[in-house]
From TrEMBL:
Keywords: Heme, Iron, Metal-binding, Signal, Transport. The keyword Metal-binding applies. CDD domains: TrHb1_N (cd00454). InterPro entries: Globin-like_sf (IPR009050), Globin/Proto (IPR012292), Hemoglobin_trunc (IPR001486). The keyword Iron-sulfur does not apply. It comes from Hymenobacter sublimis. It holds the Pfam family Bac_globin. SUPFAM superfamilies: Globin-like. This is Group 1 truncated hemoglobin.
Amino acid sequence: CGSKENEPEPKLYDRMGGLKGVEGFVDVLMANVAAETNTSNSSMLRTHTPLLTDADVPARLARLRNNFINQMGEATGGPLKYTGMTMLSAHKGMMITEKEWSVWRQAADASMATNNIGAKERAELAKILDDMKDATVGH
Ligand code: HEM
């Protein structure tokens, strides 16, 4: 009794707080990116202009949020299923730069901090994002 050694660790999804946790992470990340694109010398405005100039921005943002939540929910081991584009096709043609990537990643790190995600969980989530870098940057 008392030993937890043989108990499987709960999935990252559950350790992040399940659906509410994933939604919190995505919503604050999107808010951080939106705040960044509001500045005149924004690093991410170039890539986000097509989205921001769409006649139906709310629908476009809602679709992005939904896809992003499903993608993170699936990647963290939760019951969600991502049905959006591959990371390569989603970002193809944007020619995302290292600088843009690092600003986006800082927005993600800031969201993890705002959501009080634990240090271990932050590292695991960061790895999930960093593993997607090659498919996202420079295409
Ligand atoms: C690991 C990092 C990233 C992840 C997981 C991610 C995830 C996604 C997802 C799930 C979509 C929607 C795909 C679909 O509609 O089927 C998307 C689209 C998009 N992403 Fe990313 N992304 C990442 C990095 C970036 C970076 C660094 C930028 C720009 C600096 C960026 C800009 C965009 C833009 C502008 C769209 C298009 C939205 C639209 O057209 O409605 N992404 N991304």
